[in-house]
Amino acid sequence: MTRGNTDMIALGSDHAGLPLKLEIIQLLEERGLKYLDVGTYTDASSDYPEYGRLAAEAVADGRCTRGLVFCGTGIGISISANKVRGIRCAACSDCFSAVLSRNHNDANMLALGARVVAPAYAKMIVSMWLDAGFEGGRHQTRVDLIHKIEQEQGLE
C-alpha cells in the first residue's frame, strides 16, 4: 500500500516476516510516517530475495528515503537488499546495533527477523533506528570506502 509520496519508508517481507511487518506498519501509522509496502501480503510461502530487492530498489531509486525488511531471521533479506547498489542494510536484533548502524554506517535499510525479535522489542528497535542520525566525520570516510568497493566491483 502506498501512503503519500515523500519521505516514504520502503517495506518488504516474505511470509515469515509478514506478521512483524504488520506490527511495524502499526508503529509507522501511529507515528504518522508514510510507507510503500512492496509485499508480500499473504502468509503463502514466498521468497525473501524478491521482496528484499523490491524494497531496496525503492530506496536506491529515491522513491523512499529508507527501508525496513523482514524475514525469519532478517539475515537472508538483508543479504538480498545489500545486492542493490547504494544500499547499506543492517540486520539487527538489538537497539544498540540498530542505532550504531545509522550513526556510524549511515544504514539506509534495517532488517529484522520475525522469528528472532519479539514485536514489542522490534518496535523499539525500529523507533530508535528511525530517530538516529548519521554522525558523518570519520564515519563518512568509511561509508565512502564502502561506496568505492561498489564501484570497483562494477556495481555502478
Largest sheet: 5 strands, parallel
CATH topology call:
Ribose 5-phosphate Isomerase B, Chain: A
**Proportion in β-strands:** 5-15%
What is the ordering of alpha helices and beta strands?
EHEHEHEHEHH
Description:
This protein is α/β, with parallel strands linked by helices and 156 residues long. The chain has a single domain, classed as Ribose 5-phosphate Isomerase B, Chain: A, CATH 3.40.1400.10. Helix content is 45%, strand content 14%. The chain contains six helices and five strands. Strands 2-1-3-5-4 form a five-stranded parallel sheet, sandwiched between helices. Helix 2 crosses helix 3 (75-81). The protein is globular, with a radius of gyration of 14 Å. Mean pLDDT is 94; it is low at 1-5.
Secondary-structure map with pairings?
Elements: E1 9-13, H1 18-30, E2 35-37, H2 48-60, E3 66-71, H3 75-81, E4 89-91, H4 95-103, E5 109-113, H5 119-131, H6 138-152
Parallel strand pairs: 1-2, 1-3, 3-5, 4-5
Helix pairs in contact: 1-5, 2-3, 4-5
Could you name the key traits of this structure?
five-stranded parallel sheet, alpha/beta, globular, Ribose 5-phosphate Isomerase B, Chain: A, 156 residues, disordered N terminus, single chain
Summarize the structure.
The chain has 156 residues and is an alpha/beta fold.
